[in-house]
Amino acid sequence: MINIYDKKVKIVATLGPASDEKKMIEKIIKNGADVIRLNFSHGNENYFAEAIKNIRSVSKNTAILVDLPGPKIRTGKLNKDAINLQKGSTIILTKKYTVSDEQKIYIDYPYLCDDIKPKNLVYIDDGKIKLKIIKKINGNELEAEILTKGVLKAEKGINFPDSSLSIPSVTENDKKFLKFGAEHGADMFAVSFVRTSEDIISVKNMLKAEYPSKKFLIVAKIEKIEAVKNIEKIAAAADALMVARGDLGVEAPVENIPIEQKRIIYVANRYKKPVITATQMLLSMVENESPTRAEVTDISNAIFDGTDAVMLSEETAIGKYPDEAVAYMSKIIKATEKSPMFSGGGYKSRKAYGNYGGIGIGYLEYRSIESDDKIKIKRNVSDISDIIAETASTASKLINNCIIAAITRSGYTANLISSFKPPVPVVAVVPDDSAKRRLSLNYGVSCITMKNITDKNIDLQDVIDLIKDEIKKSGHKSPDYAVITGGIPIGEPGSTDFVKIVKLSC
Q1: Is the pTM of this model over 0.85?
Q2: Is CB count within 10 Å lower at the N or C end of the chain?
Q3: Where does residue 441 rank: exposed (0-12), middle (13-18), buried (19+ CB within 10 A)?
Q4: Does the residue 1 lie in any domain?
């Protein structure tokens, strides 16, 4: 059963010890979670196999996102519980294994002395401790100045914000988890620490070679400065983007994060790819029953920016109130979408800039740090599906009390329509649950399964009747009209070539 008048912006909720039991999964989904994220940086394959089994037993419609750990570089073990690092002092960084102390810190990175140069910065423990390289001592060791004092504990993450690293973004461990996810029914994969479009292409090529009959959505996590610089090509290669504000907030100056968030969302909207805004959106709800006013504002502003989805991490994975966090997120989304200031995925009072997502006032004059010709929107008039999607979105703004219905085998047309952020619900008529789940990140899209949609002799009236029946089952009154997109023959991939306005109400 679908609810076409539910929130348009989607919610990604992370599963963890606080939320991995069936009853809690059911509450989280009931409260508005559209996608369940499994963070493979924490847990083992047995845990995730059981988690996937629990999710699927609760819901066949909820998408599963496997978040790959990527090449996380860490410090080593210590000779005590913690060591104090004093500002202005020097310390040795080594790639040769040793137990760390106040004089020397082991860093688990084999290319340390090749990639990290004098004057490069080193951030430890999410940037709480900052170092600057003074010189290379030998093939194993670097000397660094401590820029900020801090307490170092064992096995903390390392960031090299201004260094180009030799380690691949997709590790052998990631490849193992890709296979695991593909074989256990995952719908989406998030690739961590993406640097270039090649990182995404390599994942797609591997999955295509290993599982040619399956389709997956590949999300590029934008959390490195290199990724921000290469955002255009990454957006073109990926199926979706994630504004991963955690590590990005370590690598980039924290005051720049709102600007980078707007930039990433803007590019995703232009490339017609769904985008997730993530990290610390309701962090206070790890301990508290209600969010702060700043958190509510943050979520609302991300929606005004044009995000397709918002994500909960610790809030649902280890927080005390996982189901309440999802409920609050849903409440904030709905309130923002009902606001008279909100208009189809963005801020209503913005200047005209074309139908490429919602960019807030003051951001319209944004230009890429790359050359201006790279940021121009490229319209390929030979892509009929794109023109049909824009036509359907435009028509929906001119017709009172209507919906858009996209007949689509792969979800491609529904994704295109969603990217224009139409003000009305989008109903995607798809052939199976897998296609339905792949559209779980798309703004405003609900799905109906019609297994015989792949039949070439299917009648359009059958599709219309199905839509009316499903809306009736949900307890809502049927809209007056449907703007229907599809192709002849109906259901044929890549055949979308018509827009038809149909009266639904009697």
Answers
A1: yes
A2: C
A3: buried
A4: no
